[in-house]
Amino acid sequence: MAVPVFCNVCFCEPRKPTPRFSLTSCGHVICEICLQKGKKDECLICRTPCRTLFLSKQTNPDIQSLFMGIDTLCKKYSKEITQISEFQEKHRKHLLAYHRQKTVKLEESLKKATQQMHQIQCMKPPEQTTQLPFSSTSRNPLSNPSRKQNGYSSCSFHPSHPSTSE
């Protein structure tokens, strides 16, 4: 049900023939007859400076919506909100697909680079390790020996497989 329109001064309602109604910038509705009785550019209700706009079928839809019933407004805006939501969701999915594809390519590049580094390390000649006089292993005789202390690096000739957590 639409909001009833009435003059906020004399409380008359629209009828045929009817005076035109105006909406003030301060939010009051005043009929043409009462508007002529008041001061120009001043609200008859709150006495503040204001502008007036005649209400008609050509009035801005945003202003017309002030006089629509809540159920009508809900239906109207529900449709608009649904369209906006679908539009935004479509674009979010498109962006997500782009980032997923980019992530897959980066993971493939990382895997190749890791395999290449592993192959290069396996080709290196074994390095001689010399212990420094004050290294941690000379201070702590119970420490674990380095994996290269035997003169050989631990390389497997199988490609590494990164775990799913990487």
UniProtKB/TrEMBL annotation:
Pfam entry (one): zf-RING_5
GO biological process: homologous chromosome pairing at meiosis; protein sumoylation; reciprocal meiotic recombination
PROSITE patterns reported in the protein's UniProt record: ZF_RING_1, ZF_RING_2
GO molecular function: ligase activity; SUMO transferase activity; zinc ion binding
Residue segments, region Disordered: 116-166
Gene3D superfamilies, alphabetized: Zinc/RING finger domain, C3HC4 (zinc finger)
Protein name: RN212 ligase
Domain RING-type: 7-47
The keyword Electron transport belongs to this UniProt entry's keyword annotation: no
Domain of life: Eukaryota
